[in-house]
Design a protein that fits this description.
about 325 residues; alpha+beta; five-stranded mixed β-barrel
Length: about 325
């Protein structure tokens, strides 16, 4: 990732009068990457003035600041000058988080035109702001659960298809939903294929098929983390909207556990080799007919050890999801 390399090449400003040390990003004539006196990464965007800054408020979050039309003194290749920029500051010296921030920022820079207006910059980065606003919220699922979902996307035949059908919110019933085809990912750190299900996840309506992906996830210092899997997915997907979705969902899912989540590593080879698929119809379950009408949110644990495995693209149903796995 070029923007990360450029950031790492910068020194903390020695001139006390300078706000940032910065370098021009070659692929973006309108943008620079900078480093401030705290060692924080800063994106500086030279946008055409359209008076947007008069109506748009500056943003102050725990991890992120966005300032419109700010005059800055910038040191670039030993020369200092004053200029006005829209600046986005990521307030952390944790390198894993900085890479996460810069990766999202670079994707958004790709969406801007060659001469962006202030309004264009603000609207493009609005969703970006929400990602980091979510970092003050409690996590919506476990790091292990998200890691396994990303593993399934990263190792699939068509990551773009799986990303397209990935849930928009972690609270949804299925991790991947293409209407007639659905996939629910279950993980196990005990290396046993015993998973907890809701009654909905094993009850397939007529004409629709549900597959359970079972994955062993064991923490390992030499493994891969969520950021590694996201980088792998991004290298295989050329749709900027889907890449935005990837970053947004990961951030919203982990919330204030993002920093911890980006550090935790799992044994990649073990997990990849352990992926098994099962038809929901073959898994032991409590049939819906036996659940009283006034009882809801029923959960139970089922053992998949002796259940026959399936190959998703061999299941005779017309759809794009299973063939992309």
């Amino acid at each position: 990732m070029n923007i990360v390399k450029e950031f790492c090449s910068l020194q903390i400003p020695k001139d006390k009068g300078s706000d940032f040390n910065a370098v021009q990003l070659k692929q973006y004539d309108f943008a620079k990457i900078g480093k401030n006196k705290f060692g924080f990464p800063v994106i500086l965007i030279d946008s055409e003035s359209d008076k947007t800054f008069l109506t748009q408020k500056n943003i102050r979050l725990e991890y992120l600041e966005l300032n419109n039309n700010l005059e800055c003194k910038i040191s670039e290749k030993g020369n200092s000058k004053y200029s006005n920029f829209t600046i986005i500051i990521f307030k952390s010296t944790e390198f894993t988080l900085q890479k996460y921030f810069l990766g999202i920022a670079e994707n958004l820079l790709n969406e801007l035109t060659k001469n962006p207006t202030q309004d264009e910059v603000y609207n493009t980065f609005r969703g970006f702001i929400e990602i980091f606003r979510a970092m003050s919220n409690p996590p919506k699922t476990t790091v292990q659960g998200l890691w396994c979902e990303l593993l399934l996307i990263a190792t699939s035949k068509n990551p773009q298809t799986l990303l397209e059908f990935w849930h928009n919110m972690p609270e949804e019933k299925f991790d991947f939903n293409a209407d007639i085809e659905k996939i629910e990912v279950k993980s196990s750190s005990s290396l046993e294929r015993k998973h907890i299900f809701t009654s909905d996840q094993l009850s397939s309506p007529k004409g629709k098929e549900i597959i359970i992906a079972s994955i062993f996830a064991r923490q390992s210092a030499n493994g891969k983390n969520i950021a590694d899997l996201m980088d792998s997915i991004k290298s295989k997907v050329d749709n900027v909207i889907l890449i935005d979705k990837l970053s947004s969902i990961a951030g919203a899912t982990l919330g204030n556990a993002l920093e911890q989540g980006l550090r935790v590593k799992f044994d990649y080879d073990l997990a990849k080799d352990s992926i098994n698929y099962y038809q929901s119809s073959k898994i032991s379950k409590i049939e819906e007919i036996h659940i009283p009408s006034k009882v809801s949110e029923v959960k139970y644990k089922s053992d998949l050890t002796n259940v026959e495995t399936v190959i998703p693209n061999k299941i005779s149903i017309s759809g794009r999801l299973f063939s992309g796995v």
